[in-house]
């Protein structure tokens, strides 16, 4: 997996990361657009309002045997960094296998079509984060050194999303 150099600790290692993978898994599709993912999760509104620092109401409705319930993504900037890494994986290898993101999942190849415009939107947000990571609500939960390391990784991902 191309993104394995980043995936696992600061990126891809949170409850929101697992929830994002749950969302992708429940799509039950092999082809999806980044635009659809952004809309489904509520990132389209959050990004248009320009408030990724404090988060917002993002998440999705998860279906289960007991009905449907709302899954909230608590740290918007972290979830967007995770999503950006997944998009980068699709850009570099053509797809992402959900099993590679979380070994408890069954192998499932997902192809995410990300337009240049939407990739630029991700790049812009990652670059904003990398310039001032300590101004984001995530900094209340993560040590300063880890925030700076996450900012460096976010910048590297942004640079590759061309």
Write up what this structure looks like.
The chain has 162 residues and is of the alpha+beta class. It has one domain. Helices cover 51% and strands 14% of the residues. The protein has seven helices and five strands, in the order H-E-H-H-E-E-H-E-H-E-H-H. The strands form two sheets. The protein has a three-stranded mixed beta sheet. Strands 2-3 form a two-stranded antiparallel ribbon. Strand 2 and strand 3 form a beta hairpin. Helix 4 packs across helix 6 and helix 6 packs antiparallel against helix 7. The longest helix is centred in the middle third of the chain and has 18 residues. The chain is globular and about 40 Å long. InterPro entries: Imm68. This is Immunity protein 68. It comes from Paenibacillus macquariensis. Pfam families: Imm68.
Topology at a glance:
Elements: H1 15-26, E1 31-33, H2 34-41, H3 43-49, E2 59-64, E3 67-72, H4 76-93, E4 96-97, H5 98-101, E5 109-113, H6 116-131, H7 144-160
What's the short version?
A 3-stranded mixed beta sheet has the order 1-5-4. A two-stranded antiparallel ribbon has the order 2-3.
């Amino acid at each position: 997996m191309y993104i394995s150099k980043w995936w696992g600790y600061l990126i891809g290692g949170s409850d929101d990361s697992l929830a994002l993978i749950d969302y992708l898994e429940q799509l039950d599709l092999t082809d999806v657009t980044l635009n659809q993912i952004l809309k489904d999760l509520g990132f389209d509104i959050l990004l248009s309002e320009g408030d990724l620092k404090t988060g917002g109401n993002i998440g999705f409705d998860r279906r289960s045997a007991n009905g449907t319930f709302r899954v909230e993504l608590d740290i918007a900037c972290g979830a967007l960094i995770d999503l950006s890494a997944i998009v980068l994986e699709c850009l570099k290898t053509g797809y992402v296998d959900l099993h590679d993101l979380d070994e408890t999942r069954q192998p499932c190849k997902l192809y995410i079509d990300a337009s240049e415009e939407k990739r630029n939107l991700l790049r812009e947000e990652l670059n904003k984060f990398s310039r001032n990571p300590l101004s984001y609500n995530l900094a209340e939960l993560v040590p300063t050194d880890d925030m700076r390391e996450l900012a460096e990784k976010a910048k590297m991902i942004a640079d590759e999303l061309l």
